[in-house]
Amino acid sequence: MKDLNWFPDFLRDYGTDFLQFLSNLTNMFHPIIIILQKGLEKSGTYQIIDLGSGGGGPLPKLNKTLKKHNPGLKISLTDYFPNIDALELAKGKSDNIGYIKTPVDARNLPNHLKGLRTFFLTFHHFKPEGAKIILQNAVGSKSPIAIFEGQERSFVSLLAMFLSPVSVLLTSLFIKPFKLGRLLFTYIIPLVSLFVWRDGIVSSLRTYSEEKMNDMINELKNKDDFEWEVGRIRSGPGFILYLLGVEKKIERPILAEPELMLISSDY
User: N or C: which end of the chain has fewer CB within 10 A?
Assistant: First the structure.
């Protein structure tokens, strides 16, 4: 529902703010740092292009650990419906984080956006045709890609989504940037809770399984040009489902001072 053009921007932003806050509070994506590091090393890049960043996503928090192993790392946050306030807040957390003000379609990236493409809790929003376009575009442009989903079609995941309104009520007072509208539409008119509840359940049911991801990979043209890895990593009581694709036979260059330009909000 939040992917629809008619959906109110303020509700979409409140929802993505909540997801951002909760994933950071629980360190949900900390276990997948090893996958991101593998993608960076095998692709020889120091640039991450995050697609569907929403309220900033988990990268601003993972950034500190990633920078220890990648001193020249640059992160660019993008979204088709950019939450400017939240992205500006994320940018302010580190000098190697930037964002794109204008909408970015993950199915058709501008040529200047080069680096490891990441998707956090967003790949399931694309129907199979769109999902395959994303993967095919990565292969065609020889761009590494890493996809991470924190929900799946399971009883535990669906139960967590059914209880999500409780989490919204308990956390909304602590989400930054502070907005009176968020409190109004959480505690007085519970539209945020209803939106998060509905979106969470649908997201779990739409998430592609390991088998489905492998099926999509097998349908790609020139799929053998890439190394593919699909799996699950435990995170707390649940799992993170992931897909990593990197062009074969790429060695990381040795750079004294990586000459990479941070993509900023000026675009």
Answer: N
Q: Residues 53-77: pLDDT tens digits?
A: 987 889 999 999 999 999 999 999 9
Going by the DSSP 8-state scheme, the letter that residue 185 receives in this structure is I
Q: What is the 3-state secondary structure (H, E, C) of 51-63?
A: ECCCCCCCHHHHH
- Angle among Cα 67, 73, 79 to the nearest 5 degrees reads 110
Q: How many angstroms from the chain centroid is the CA of residue 235?
A: 16
**Among 155, 154, 233, 162, CA closest to 199:** 162
What pLDDT, in 10s, does the model give residues 171-220? Answer: 888 888 788 999 999 899 999 989 889 888 888 889 999 999 999 999 99
Beta bridge partners of 99: 77
Q: What's the pLDDT score for residue 238?
A: 85
Given a contact cutoff of 8 angstroms between Cβ atoms, the answer to whether 243 and 145 are in contact is: yes
| Other beta carbons less than 10 A from residue 70's beta carbon | 21
CB 227 within 8 A of CB 217: no
